[in-house]
């Protein structure tokens, strides 16, 4: 779950990380009022969960409250990268001397949390990593020891933070780690962390991603998820405990297990077709789950045929077959299906499908070929 | 021979009285696994499966009383990290965690402890292991396996079943099959399992089933070119996967250009691994290997 900039900054402020003065506005009048309070140039920042917000016109610098109101009325209600803007963060303008990157995340390879810093802030860290990896400093954190002062000093020295600012920098690093840990995050990023012309360090932007698997420890956050940047079908799938990702092709896929779902998409591609989605119905899928999955796949109008591949271990093929048959009788889709069931109770499952006149396949290869040919015949 | 589990495995099941735990304990027993104990806090003193297996309140007591040397974990995600630590604390050296959805930061702490205590952790988010004909620890259906000389190691669940099934259809059996788990932070990686197979007299060929995300397959490729004398056949799932989208498994995501199927395939091919394009091609490649082998020896 990704937090908005304003939510991330709230977290930072709670942990004594300096942020610019400012508040959230949802109308142009509010924007004007906040600008008056701040009494100087202000920055208007659209709160949308998409990358490249600045380039898409979601960040504006204005000098007067009147301008703030005018600009706010232009951005609010409009769309940035197709996401409607409902809120603006209005903040005081800051005079920047230097932009730094400071972030923490999980290093999969090392199996540890890492803190990453770079003197090249304000741009995407992946870009810095690609173009000039030598400009990135990092330290690994042992969870039993926590982040140590000497590690932060090493970071500060490596990215050449002025010696006079080491003390506040060390505090910010500790506080960022506390924010990250406290929320069970997988990413906490301040980009940029700025040194102002009057030598203060301030978090000018913020991004926190919380581990969905740890949300049970943060019940207060559950209803704060903003799904406006997500695809409706993906949200719907999550409700049923399904994992669905929309793709651009026309062969719908319904599979049990993530690895097998990927492999099924892959073989469609090898046979010359294009998968319309990734969909994992999980282990021990019930007839009800199968029905929900089929509804989601069929709601994609690009889908010309559906490939169902179930390998029954815990999942029982007869139950899946029953779910398929029932849903198809109810929805009466006009597109053909290719179904392959193997494993627990597969004979019974195939019998149910044969009685319903559905196309079945013995192997994954055969199923993929049949699906791809069906689409070709339609063209 | 086989790796990690065999006839001398003495298994303890954590979460044995839960629905999943009980069901799979029954299945594991049917495969001939020597299950000596179960643990559910608060249920100590009970017996399950017609009085066959005693239940203890803690792993420590279960180990003290029964001499269990391996543990399998079926407890819910929020308690699973603790369950791994409890097993490690009780001196168990092989811990297999089936549970999916453990917070990744919990795993980082767990990893420090298991490293320090020299514990082999398989998983989490793993289907477990099976040595056909001798023992099963986890949930891999035994009906799709048969005893043989192919070692299988995989990050996936049902995809592994698909490949085991394809092998069996082709008359090819397995020595041991290990599911290392689909999470971004896991206990044991490909390279470690590959080294066990390299040293196992029953294993002649290894099948390695990877997927997008992370760099473990690339690391395994480096290990193969340096240390493996036995042939390895590979498969990488997610060739058609988009970037920055988590494909079901918490670990299956291409981030910042890292973890693509193409990069993994190329790394493996460079290490001399033949990479199958689809699951059913795996047995074909193995058969070719043996034909070539036979041709060479003749």
Describe the structure.
The complex is a heterodimer of chains A (379) and B (298). Chain A has helices at residues 5-14, 28-38, 54-58, 65-75, 125-131, 149-158, 166-182, 232-239, 258-270, 287-298, 317-331, 346-355, 364-378; strands at residues 22-25, 42-46, 59-62, 79-80, 83-84, 88-92, 96-107, 112-118, 136-141, 185-196, 201-203, 207-210, 243-246, 251-255, 277-280, 305-312, 337-343, 359-360. Chain A is an alpha+beta fold and 379 residues long. Chain A folds into three domains: 21-92, ATP-grasp fold, A domain (Dna Ligase, domain 1); 96-224, 2-Layer Sandwich (D-amino Acid Aminotransferase, Chain A, domain 1); 232-378, 3-Layer(aba) Sandwich (Rossmann fold). In chain A, strands 7, 8, 9, 10, 11 and 12 form a six-stranded antiparallel beta sheet that branches. A four-stranded antiparallel beta sheet of chain A has the order 1-6-2-3. A four-stranded parallel beta sheet of chain A has the order 14-16-17-18, with helices on both faces. In chain A, helix 2 packs antiparallel against helix 4 (65-75), helix 6 crosses helix 7 and helix 10 (287-298) packs across helix 11 (317-331). The mean pLDDT of chain A is 92. Chain B has a seven-stranded mixed beta sheet with strand order 3-4-2-1-5-6-7, with helices on both faces. A seven-stranded mixed beta sheet of chain B has the order 9-8-11-10-12-13-14, sandwiched between helices. Chain B is an alpha/beta fold. Chain B is globular, with a radius of gyration of 19 Å. Chain B has two domains: 11-122, Rossmann fold; 140-297, Rossmann fold (3-Layer(aba) Sandwich), CATH 3.40.50.261. In chain B, strand 5 (70-73), helix 3 (77-89) and strand 6 form a beta-alpha-beta unit. The mean pLDDT of chain B is 93. In chain B, helix 6 packs parallel to helix 7 (216-227) and helix 7 packs parallel to helix 8 (261-270). Chain B has helices at 19-30, 59-66, 77-89, 104-116, 158-169, 190-198, 216-227, 261-270, 281-297, and strands at 11-14, 35-39, 47-48, 53-56, 70-73, 94-97, 120-122, 128-131, 135-138, 147-154, 174-179, 205-211, 232-237, 274-276. In chain B, 36% of the residues lie in helices and 21% in strands. The interface between A and B is large, with 52 and 60 residues.
């Amino acid at each position: 779950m990704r937090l908005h900039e304003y939510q991330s900054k709230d977290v930072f402020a709670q942990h004594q990380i300096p942020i610019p003065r400012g508040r959230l506005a949802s109308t142009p009048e509010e924007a004007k009022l906040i600008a008056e309070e701040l009494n100087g140039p202000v920055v208007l920042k659209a709160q949308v969960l998409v990358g490249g917000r600045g380039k898409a016109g979601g960040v504006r610098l204005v000098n007067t409250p009147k301008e703030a109101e005018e600009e706010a009325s232009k951005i609010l209600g409009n769309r940035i990268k197709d996401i409607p803007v409902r809120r603006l963060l209005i903040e005081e303008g800051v005079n920047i001397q230097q932009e730094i990157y400071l972030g923490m995340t999980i290093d999969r390879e090392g199996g540890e949390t890492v803190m990453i810093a770079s003197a090249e802030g304000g741009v995407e860290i992946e870009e810095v990593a690609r173009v000039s990896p030598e400009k990135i400093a990092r330290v690994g954190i042992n969870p039993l020891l926590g982040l140590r002062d000497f590690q932060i000093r090493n970071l500060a020295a490596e990215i050449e933070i002025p010696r006079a600012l080491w003390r506040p920098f060390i505090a910010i690093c500790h506080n960022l780690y506390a924010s990250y840990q406290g929320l069970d995050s997988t990413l906490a990023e301040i980009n940029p962390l700025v040194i102002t012309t009057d030598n203060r360090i301030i978090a000018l932007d913020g991004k926190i991603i919380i581990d969905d698997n740890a949300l049970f420890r943060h019940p207060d956050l559950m209803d704060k998820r903003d799904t406006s940047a997500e695809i409706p079908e993906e949200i719907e799938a999550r409700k049923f405990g399904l994992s669905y990702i929309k793709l651009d092709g026309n062969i719908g896929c319904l599979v049990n297990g993530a690895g097998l779902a990927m492999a099924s998409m892959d073989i469609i591609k090898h046979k010359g077709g294009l998968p319309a989605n990734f969909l994992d119905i999980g282990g021990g899928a019930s007839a009800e789950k199968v029905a929900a999955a089929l509804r989601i796949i069929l709601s994609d109008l690009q889908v010309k045929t559906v490939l169902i591949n179930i390998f029954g271990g815990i999942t029982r093929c007869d139950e899946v077959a029953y779910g398929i048959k029932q849903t198809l009788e109810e929805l009466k889709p006009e597109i053909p299906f290719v179904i392959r069931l193997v494993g627990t109770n597969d004979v019974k499952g195939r019998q149910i499908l044969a009685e319903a006149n559905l196309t079945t396949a013995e192997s994954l290869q055969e199923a993929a070929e049949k699906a791809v040919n069906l689409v070709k015949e339609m063209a | 021979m086989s790796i990690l589990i065999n006839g001398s495995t003495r298994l303890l099941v954590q979460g044995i009285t839960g629905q999943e735990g009980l069901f799979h304990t029954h299945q594991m027993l049917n495969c001939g696994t020597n299950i000596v104990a179960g643990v559910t806090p608060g249920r100590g003193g009970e017996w399950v499966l017609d009085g066959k297996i005693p239940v203890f309140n803690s792993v420590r007591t279960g180990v003290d009383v029964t001499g269990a040397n391996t543990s399998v974990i079926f407890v819910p995600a929020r308690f699973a990290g603790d369950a791994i630590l409890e097993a490690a604390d009780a001196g168990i050296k092989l811990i297999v965690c089936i549970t999916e959805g453990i917070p990744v930061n919990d795993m980082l702490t767990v990893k420090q402890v298991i490293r320090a205590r020299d514990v082999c952790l398989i998983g989490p988010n793993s289907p477990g292991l099976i040595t056909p004909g001798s023992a099963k620890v986890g949930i891999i259906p035994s009906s799709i396996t048969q005893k043989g000389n192919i070692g299988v190691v995989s990050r996936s669940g049902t995809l592994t079943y698909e490949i085991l099934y394809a092998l069996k259809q082709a008359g090819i059996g397995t020595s041991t099959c290990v599911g290392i788990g689909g999470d971004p932070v896991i206990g044991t990686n490909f390279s470690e399992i590959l080294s066990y197979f390299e040293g196992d007299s029953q294993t002649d060929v290894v099948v390695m089933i990877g997927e997008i995300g992370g760099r473990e397959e690339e690391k395994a490729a480096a290990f193969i070119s340096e240390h493996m004398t036995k042939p390895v056949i590979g498969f990488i799932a997610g060739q058609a996967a988009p970037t920055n989208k988590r494909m079901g498994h918490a670990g299956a995501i291409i981030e910042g250009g890292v973890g693509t199927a193409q990069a993994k395939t190329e790394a493996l091919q460079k290490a001399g691994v033949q990479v199958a394009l689809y699951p059913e091609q795996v047995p074909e490649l193995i058969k070719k290997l043996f034909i070539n082998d036979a041709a060479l020896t003749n």
